[in-house]
Each structure stands twice: as C-alpha cells, then as structure tokens.
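Page 37, continued from 36.
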C-alpha cells in the first residue's frame, strides 16, 4: 500500500513523541533499528483511496503503521495517557489492519501504561511463550491468507459512527459521483462543467436551512437553472467542515430503485461495501443517532414518479432517524407541490412539514459579477449550446464569458 507522510498537527506531534517508548514496550524482543513507523497511512475503499489515520479530540488516539525490516508488522492504536483501553479501539485497529495490503499480522492497542497485542485475523490476543523475530516472520508469512469476511467486517466497522473514517469515505464517494457527472461545455448531456462553478446565493441559504430544525431542504427551480450546481457547491463548501458531511447521490442512479437502494449501489460501486438496502437503512440510522458531524444526503434530480423515492424521503426524515441526518433534494419546481402537499393538494404532506424550500432563480447581480471558479472571462468559439438557457437567465450570449454562463447545466 502506498505510504504518504502528511503535516502533523500539534496534537499529533504530542502523541508521536510517545511512539518510540510504546514500540519498545510492545516489542522489547525486536532490535529497535529494524522497526519503523508511519502515521497517516492510506488504503483503498473500493475505487476510492482514503486516509486511514484520523486524529480528533473525540478519538484522542494516533493510528500508526509499524514495519519490521520493511514488512508491515502491526497497526498501533496509541491512546492518550490516562485513557482506558476500550473495545472500539481494538475494533478500529483490527479494521485498519484488515484493509491494508500487505496485511500486518498484529494490532497493538496501548496508552503507554497498558498494552494489548491482537492477531489481525482472529482478533484474539496474541500470546507466545518465547516471542522472537522468528515468530514475527511466521506471522508476516501467514498474514496473506485473507478471509473475505474479514474485509466485510472491517468495512462495517470503519464506516460506523465510532470511526471518523466514514467521513473521508463518503467525501471520496461524492467526488467520484461528481466526476462522472462532469464534462466539457460541449457535453450537453452531462449536468456539470469541469472547472466551472458559479457560487450561488442559494447554496448559502441551503446551509442556513441545514442549521434549522427542519430535516429536509428542497432546492427547487425550473429545469436547467443550476440546481445540480448548488448541490455540487454544497459538497465543496462542506469538504473541510467538522459539522457537516455531504454525500452526493443521483436520485435516478439506481436504475429505478428508491433512495436507499441508490445509496447502497453507490457504497458498493465506490467503496466496495456490498450491503442490501435494509442494511443501508440501519447504517444511516446508526449515524443519525451518533456523534457529530451531521450527514447530509444531497439527492440530485428527485422525481416522485416512483413511489419508492417519496416513501424513502418520508422515512429518512421521520422520527426513527436521529438529528444528525439531513436531506437536501434538488427538485424541478413542477414537482415540489407534489412533494409538499398531499394527493388532494389541500393539506401539507409529512415531507412538507419537515422541509424548508430554497428557490434557485435567475442569476442575481452579485452572482453574475463573481468570477466562476476555475475559469476566466475570455472569448470562446461559438458553439451550438451557447444560448441554451441565456434567455431564462435574462442576458444575451454575446461574449465569450457570457457564453460560459449560457452553458450552465441544470
């Protein structure tokens, strides 16, 4: 697995100062010059690469990859002094180790005073009468025998609420989805343009809505007015947030299924987590009742032509799910009344009672004057798509920069 060193925060630096003593306690029978350690290691989640060692004030630990003679030996969970060792520390260490290739055969959980060494494969405590380099070589040689169930259990643990790794995994999955929907200006069937995004006032209103008591924010507007770009901007603005994690999902990405099945498909395709919709429901419910950050499901292109979609929205915004799950839906304005009203149109639906609506309209003056990210105002060749929505946005496409605006997709 490729190893990459990243800048350490002061918290990490304080913890790393304790690594060498911890290694000597865990492996006193190994020559110290043969041991190396690396923080901030990475591994593959399906098609996505995520960082596997996140330090936070809530976790209060440092995750370390230890090698012996350049072969992975152990994942070490180094906790702050004075904190007791807990079962979740063991589970996270075991899950990290099971995701790595080559697989380290051991997991060490320690706070400096107490140390526990576990076998990666079984999770049982590793105990030998006479530990030696020869025993370590046997462990390393046997570590390649991986059971498929180990990876599944590891994924479930690392995507659970007790591990902050789900944050990085979801952001990676959103990046994959947005990349697939992005193309050049001439690729008119793709809703997003690579390197081109106009900051919208509506996105800020969406973030304000997410901080309210409402469970769902409906981003509504006519077709091709930039609703997908608002969701894309939401993903970007919350990328480094400690309060919100945005998961971008296509509403019609599951081949006619409901939202829960679509999310299950995304998790399988991008993260290699093959779980049915029922297990996805349980996972989301667990996160919704867990600690912050709040998970925001940004569902693009909602249509109520399928009853499964409306049913899933009602369920995900209901009382069975906790406060740390919110939905943002991009919806054509002709669809909104069907979502927020009952069948007679005379009564507010459950979704309507739980929703705040953010309209996406024509570009306002301050939006029009903003320089789109990744672009410059320069002339471009005339193209067939130059005036697709220029009339709707209220300006003519007479210059190159405006032609760029004219090529905004939905």
């Amino acid at each position: 697995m490729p190893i990459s060193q990243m800048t350490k925060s002061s918290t990490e630096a304080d913890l790393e100062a304790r690594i060498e003593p911890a290694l000597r306690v865990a492996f006193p029978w190994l020559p110290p010059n043969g041991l190396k350690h690396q923080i901030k290691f990475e591994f593959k989640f399906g098609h996505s690469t995520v960082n596997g060692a996140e330090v936070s004030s809530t976790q209060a630990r440092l995750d370390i990859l230890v090698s012996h003679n350049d072969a992975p030996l152990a994942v070490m969970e180094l906790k702050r002094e004075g904190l007791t060792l807990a079962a979740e520390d063991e589970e996270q260490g075991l899950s990290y180790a099971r995701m790595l290739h080559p697989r380290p055969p051991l997991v060490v959980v320690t706070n400096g005073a107490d140390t526990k060494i576990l076998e990666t494969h079984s999770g049982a405590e590793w105990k030998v009468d006479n530990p030696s380099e020869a025993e370590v070589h046997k462990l390393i040689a046997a570590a390649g025998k991986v059971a498929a169930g180990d990876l599944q259990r590891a994924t479930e643990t690392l995507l659970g609420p007790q591990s902050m790794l789900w944050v990085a995994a979801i952001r990676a999955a959103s990046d994959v989805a947005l990349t697939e929907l992005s193309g050049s200006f001439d690729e008119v069937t793709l809703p997003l343009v690579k390197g081109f995004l106009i900051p919208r006032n509506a996105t800020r209103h969406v973030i304000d809505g997410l901080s309210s008591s409402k469970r769902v924010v409906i981003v509504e507007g006519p077709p091709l007015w930039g609703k997908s770009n608002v969701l894309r901007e939401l993903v970007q603005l919350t990328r480094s947030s400690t309060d919100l994690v945005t998961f971008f999902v296509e509403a019609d990405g599951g081949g006619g299924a409901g939202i829960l099945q679509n999310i299950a498909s995304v998790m399988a395709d991008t993260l290699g987590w093959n779980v049915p919709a029922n297990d996805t429901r349980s996972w989301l419910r667990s996160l919704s009742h867990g600690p912050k950050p709040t998970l925001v499901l940004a569902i693009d292109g909602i249509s109520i032509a399928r009853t499964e979609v409306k049913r899933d929205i009602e369920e995900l915004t209901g009382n069975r799910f906790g406060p740390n799950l919110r939905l943002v839906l991009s919806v054509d304005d002709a669809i909104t009344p069907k979502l927020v009203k009952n069948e007679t149109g005379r009564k507010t639906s459950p979704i309507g009672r739980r929703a705040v609506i953010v309209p996406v309209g024509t570009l306002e003056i301050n939006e029009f004057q903003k320089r789109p990210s990744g672009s410059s105002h320069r002339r471009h060749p005339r193209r067939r798509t130059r005036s697709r929505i220029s009339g709707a946005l209220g300006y003519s496409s007479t210059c190159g920069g405006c032609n760029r605006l004219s090529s905004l997709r939905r």
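Residues 367-406 form one domain. Flag for discussion at group meeting. The first strand starts at residue 35 and ends at 39.
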